[in-house]
Amino acid sequence: MSQNEHQPQENKSLLGIYKDVFIGGGVTGCVILLIVAVALVVGFWLDEKFESANHIYIFVSILLSVPVTFVAILWVVGKLTSRKKTSSVGDAAAQKQNVQEDAHRGTNSEEA
Asked: Are the C-beta atoms of 19 and 84 separated by less than 8 Å?
């Protein structure tokens, strides 16, 4: 019986992990796409403004977007991780409270 009771909790935690992975992947993918798109637009604009024949500004903007993307990804992952840690602390406290309530109910049912 106890194995069946733990099954839904394990599925719930597994779904939480999948949700975190998909959210993290989606957010980081959007950040990468946004930075590369901005770099391309700026590069095309500079090439057109300065009439560059060999499109040097596009190449420079794409090369400069690599470290910017790296820093942005580290920042986003750090934010998502810290948010997950604070929610995990709250979940752990709620789970501890539930265990204490279950233990209290168990002692009350034995008295009856």
From this structure: no
C-alpha 77/C-alpha 80 separation (Å) is 5
Backbone angles phi, psi at 85, to 5 degrees: -65, -40
Task: Enter the pTM of the model.
Answer: 0.65
For residues 90-108, average pLDDT: 65
The Cα–Cα gap between 17 and 25 comes to 12
Instruction: Map tokens 């719930």 to a residue.
Output: 12
How many residues make up the chain in this entry? Answer: 112
In the predicted model, what is the mean pLDDT of the chain? 81
Contact, 55 vs 47, CB < 8 A?
Answer: yes
Number of domains observed in the structure of the chain: 1
- Which residue segment(s) compose the domain that 38 sits in? 2-111
Look at the alpha carbons of 41, 43, 45, 47 in this order and tell me if their dihedral is positive or negative: negative
